[in-house]
Amino acid sequence: MLPDIKHAIRLQLLDDRVAVLTKEIAAFPKHIAEIEKKLDAHQRRLEADRAAVVGNAKERKRLEGDIQVQEQKISKLKGQMMEAKNNEQYTAFQHEIKFAEGEIGRIEDRILELMSESEPLEKNVKAAEIDLAKEKKQVEAEKVVAKDRTAADQKEIDTLKTERTGIVKEMTPAVFSEYERIRKGRAGVAIAEAVNGRCSKCHITLRPQFLQELKKADKIMVCESCKRMLYYNPPQSFEDLVPESVRA
After folding, report:
1. How many C-beta atoms surround the C-beta of residue 231 within 10 A?
2. Is 232 a residue whose pLDDT tops 70?
């Protein structure tokens, strides 16, 4: 196999790995943004639940004030009723007192409703506070993981790029230039292996004569279909796999 082809194969492996790591690094901020968005939504829901609890308590307090007003009104009416000069006035005061007592009953029923509503609201708030605290810890932990992974990925990328620079120096400039041109025009893949008489990337069957020329491995050849560089790895025989000391 030509040295330039060996270098191109190694370059492709390095470029593929760099692409994976770069994609991973780019995905971390998006992931953090998504979980922070969910956290904000849960925070707003908790604030709404807290507001509902506060609103419930305020409404009960207001209604308790209304009861006091009605009780004061009843007390005043009873005093006036004792000074009634005739049955007609007396009966009128009785009707007003009865109406005020009915208002108190209605208000008390509403207070009982609010009290029954407040219990689950308060439970929801407590549960949401616990869940939110756990979620905040999880988000912070994921931020730390993302930061560490990003640093590790970037360190690996730097190492790969250093190796890549060394390989490029050993390649024939024209071959490297062709490698880069093909890679940019073929979704990052510039070189492919011929397997079972086909290009492993576009899967088009190679012409017999073309395949024979490729097997000679004495020049740079490209797939007649996808225009990627091609290489052929001859199958290894059993003798090739067994160490010479064993064969002896």
Report:
1. 19
2. yes
Q: Which residues pair with 159 in a beta bridge?
A: none
Structural tokens at position 216: 């000679």
For residue 12, is pLDDT > 90? Answer: yes
Burial class (CB in 10 A: 0-12, 13-18, 19+), 230: buried
Order across the sheet with 191-195: list the strands. 198-199, 191-195, 229-231, 221-222
Radius of gyration of the chain (CA): 41
pLDDT category at 149 given cuts 50, 70, 90 is very high
* Lookup result for tokens 């692409």: 19
Domains of the chain by start residue, with CATH: 3-170 (1.10.287.1490), 173-240 (no CATH)
- Rounded CA separation 206/195 (Å): 10
The number of helix segments (H) and strand segments (E) in the chain equals: 6, 4
The token duo for 76 is 């005043």
Q: What is the pLDDT of residues 15-41, one digit of tens each?
A: 999 999 999 999 999 999 999 999 999
d(CA 1, CA 158): 29
* Residue in 154, 162, 163, 146 with CA at minimum distance from that of residue 21: 154
Residues 150-209 have pLDDT tens digits of 999 999 999 999 999 999 999 999 999 999 999 999 999 999 999 999 999 999 999 999
CA distance 22 to 182: 20
Query: Where are the extended beta strands (E) located within the chain?
Result: 191-195, 198-199, 221-222, 229-231
